[in-house]
Amino acid sequence: MSEPILDIQGLNKSFGPVHVLHDVDFAVRAGEVTALVGDNGAGKSTLVKCIAGIHGSDSGTVRFNGADAHIHGPRDAAALGIEVVYQDLALADNLDIVQNMFLGRERGSKWLLDEASMEQAARETLASLSVRTVKSVRTPVSALSGGQRQTVAIAKSVLWDSKVVLLDEPTAALGVAQTRQVLDLVRRLAEKGLGVVLISHNMADVFEVADRIAVLYLGRLVAEVHTKDVTHGQVVELITAGRSGDLGLARPEAAVL
């Protein structure tokens, strides 16, 4: 088993009296897609935001590339090489692809942007991911389809020498052909050696592209399994009940009469 590139141990997070994450152990390995699944309210978004530095954790340890890491904000996560593609994509419709990919990280001086360098880097990044659905990197985002927007958002996340990419529901509200494009891109990210976390409610997508499945149930990570070792039904049981046969939470002991 390969050493995790991102290894989280004993993560706890509360908001006031509400304990959202309970001693979560979560690992991401280079070259693999790990699907993070769970029902609404299971804690998926909170876990991702703790990894991304948006929320601080109450306790727990984080190791990145085998060394202790301290994530106090999004800049710390980005400096490590952790990028997140949120469901709303965070793209500016009035800007073109190049401007979106470099938004906030533009090249050049404060007086003059290096447009040629940014355009070349955008093209190379899209080409490295075998993206063929975008005709011009100067196309305004407002003119792109849903699948093309998702492609741009994912390409933006790998432009910065990232090592771990977290994708929040990347195929939500996409058609069949666009979903196919995005799933192919997710696999290519792993093939490039990145550690990919796929957050999804779509079990067909999960079983198609994920190497491992991690299941959150009421803030607890109840199982982390190889995709080939479980069935759709077992994963659904883990999501809805926290256990499936020998997997997940231990069965409560019989009450003593």
UniProtKB/TrEMBL annotation:
SMART domains: AAA. GO terms for molecular function: ATP binding; ATP hydrolysis activity. PANTHER family: CARBOHYDRATE TRANSPORT ATP-BINDING PROTEIN MG119-RELATED, SUGAR ABC TRANSPORTER ATP-BINDING PROTEIN. It comes from Amycolatopsis xylanica. The lineage of its organism: Bacteria, Bacillati, Actinomycetota, Actinomycetes, Pseudonocardiales. The keyword Nucleotide-binding applies. Keywords: ATP-binding, Nucleotide-binding. This is D-xylose transport system ATP-binding protein. It comes from the Bacteria. Residues 6-243 form the ABC transporter domain. Signal peptide: none annotated.
